[in-house]
């Protein structure tokens, strides 16, 4: 009984830490960092009024959203209308469960993996939850009784289908190299070299697809303000809109975690093991620190892309997914299989 309670406490602590990192820390940090960086890229002032260097701006934004009037339009499907933001945020948080944030921690003779769930099919779980996240957007568009919202939901559906196929194809070569669907095994398989080297094409495909999956510029067609006002969240206000806002940033963080884990070795250095170099405790902190640094590198690229590239036309979006990324992903699988067979 005591052992069961200890294991339950460890699991709850890991869940709390993962959610606090993803939602409570990274989302407000990203709101501030994006506003500052976009202002820098566009040669203008960013937030600089609330707190020193505007560092309290995320708190002001949160208060503004909380205090705004919460409007429910007439004619909406109320159950789905209120359920859609919750689905979007729930699916964004679910992928945190399989991400290994660092090497195993040794405490009092007990080995604690720094992931909430060490699933043998972690990659399939990640792809499945990413696919389910589109339901939040689709239901928001369907239930809002608005043509703009409905078109945004339809766009999101077709975009998700198009780029989800290419994303899955980009991971097959990686799975062939690691011979496992477990994310911890994928990290350990990169103890000598990160998979970005033998799977550079897969890395590029996955990166493009993860930007499209999170509806970020230049793939932000579901919420194109020049065509659809706000897109799928046009009819949402106050905290319901804030939940959609949070889920987008949470998805950015989680996708950055996944690409760092899959192609850059996660918490590992390219050659050396931080635990072997610095010991069991300092090494864990060093591993987690470099993992967070990789996450911030990809989040910076997200913001850089938003500030640099114009939005795709919708026909360009579809053609690029089906006629470029998907055939390139299939070619990468074929070449990887030939190389592995040749050098076996």
Instruction: Write down the domain tally.
Output: 1
Helix residue percentage: 55-70%
Total strands: 2
**Beta fraction of the residues?**
under 5%
Structural class of the secondary elements? mainly alpha
Number of helices: 13
Show unreliable segments.
Answer: none
Put the structure in a nutshell.
The protein contains 13 helices and two strands; from the N terminus they run αααββαααααααααα. With 344 residues, the chain is mostly helical. It has one domain (2-342).
Could you explain how this protein is built, in words?
- This protein has helices spanning 2-41, 57-67, 78-94, 122-132, 134-143, 147-178, 183-188, 200-213, 225-228, 238-263, 274-278, 282-308, 314-342, and strands spanning 105-107, 110-112.
- By secondary structure, the chain is mostly helical.
- It has one domain.
- The chain has a two-stranded antiparallel ribbon with strand order 1-2.
- The longest helix is centred in the first third of the chain and has 40 residues, at 2-41.
């Amino acid at each position: 009984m005591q052992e069961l309670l200890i294991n339950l406490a460890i699991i709850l602590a890991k869940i709390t830490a993962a959610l606090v990192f993803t939602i409570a820390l990274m989302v407000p940090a990203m709101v501030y960092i994006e506003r500052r960086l976009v202002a820098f890229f566009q040669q203008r002032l960013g937030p600089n009024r609330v707190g020193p260097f505007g560092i309290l701006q995320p708190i002001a934004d949160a208060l503004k959203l909380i205090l705004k009037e919460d409007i429910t339009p007439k004619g909406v499907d109320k159950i789905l209308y209120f359920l859609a933001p919750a689905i979007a945020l729930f699916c964004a948080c679910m992928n945190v469960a399989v991400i290994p944030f660092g090497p195993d921690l040794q405490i009092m003779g007990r080995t604690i993996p720094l992931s909430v769930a060490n699933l043998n099919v972690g990659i399939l779980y990640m792809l499945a939850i990413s696919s389910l996240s589109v339901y939040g957007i689709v239901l928001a568009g369907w239930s809002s009784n608005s043509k703009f919202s409905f078109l945004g939901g339809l766009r999101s559906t077709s975009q998700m289908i198009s780029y989800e196929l290419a994303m899955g194809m980009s991971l097959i070569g990686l799975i062939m190299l690691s011979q496992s669907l477990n994310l911890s095994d994928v990290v350990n398989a990169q103890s000598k070299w990160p998979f970005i080297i033998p799977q550079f094409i897969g890395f590029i495909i996955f990166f493009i697809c993860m930007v499209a999956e999170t509806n970020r510029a230049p793939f932000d067609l579901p919420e194109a303000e020049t065509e659809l006002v706000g897109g799928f969240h046009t009819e949402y206000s106050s905290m319901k809109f804030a939940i959609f806002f949070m889920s987008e940033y949470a998805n950015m963080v989680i996708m950055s975690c996944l690409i760092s884990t899959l192609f850059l070795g996660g918490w590992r250095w390219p050659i050396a093991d931080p635990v072997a170099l610095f010991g069991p405790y300092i090494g864990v902190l060093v591993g987690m620190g470099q993992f967070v640094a990789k996450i911030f590198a990809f989040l910076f690229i997200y913001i850089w892309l938003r500030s640099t590239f114009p939005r795709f036309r919708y026909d360009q979006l579809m053609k690029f997914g089906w006629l470029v990324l998907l055939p390139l992903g299939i070619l990468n699988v074929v070449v990887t299989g030939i190389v592995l067979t040749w050098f076996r």
